[in-house]
Amino acid sequence: MTTAPGTVLVVEDEPSIADVLAIALRYHRFEVMVAGTVREALALVERTRPDAALLDVMLPDGDGRALGRELRDRRPDLALVFLTARDSPAEVVGALGFGDDYITKPFNIDEVVARITAVLRRTRPADVLPQRPPLRYGDLELDETTYSVHRAGRSVELTPTEYALLRFLVRNGGRIVPKEQLLRHVWQYEHTPPESTVVETYISYLRRKLDALGPPVITTRRGVGYGLA
User: Fold this and answer.
1) Considering only CA atoms, which of 90, 89, 71, 73 is closest in space to residue 81?
2) pTM for this one?
3) Which residues get modified to 4-aspartylphosphate (predicted)?
4) How far apart are CA 109 and CA 21, in angstroms?
5) SS3 of 35, please?
6) Is 119 exposed, middle or buried (0-12, 13-18, 19+ CB in 10 A)?
7) Per-residue pLDDT at 128
8) Beta-bridge mates of residue 82
9) Rounded CA gap, 31 and 14, in Å?
């Protein structure tokens, strides 16, 4: 028997959209739970353990981003993907502040499935992880068994995507990693959207958290990419 690739909580108040998402995800062997409100979603998470949540930003009894914060507080390992009809930079930055990806409406259903698959691939640890030595660069230490990060001995709280980005930079040492490589290896984008600012957004989040504990550690090669100092 083939194991399901994961369980997805779909939170969407428009029944026709929720049905399309659920049918497509189930076709690709995901287990799917559907909620139409914030209240229903929180009740489902009390009883089950989804691997990812696909959240509409506009819900009848609340804001999908506030729901995402609540879900992340309860389940720090839960991957969050937002559905939004708004694509302004402020909206995107707001969604990515603590989420792992965002998709704008109207959307291509194949892209939704691909994004969910990619997010889970980079955020969900294997069922059994071998003991691995920590990754180190300067005063940074990444524990690949517990997915924890320390700088100068002090804990740094990162989202799964922030962790994946920092891990890729650490693995590449002092080399400058082109933006296209980061999108391909961290976000699993096969074709880079030319207008995408997701890398810049997450680099700014990492800098804010890491620079609070020491001198700047992430360097920028303008027009090329990013590396570690």
Assistant:
1) 71
2) 0.58
3) 56
4) 7
5) strand
6) buried
7) 46
8) 55, 102
9) 20
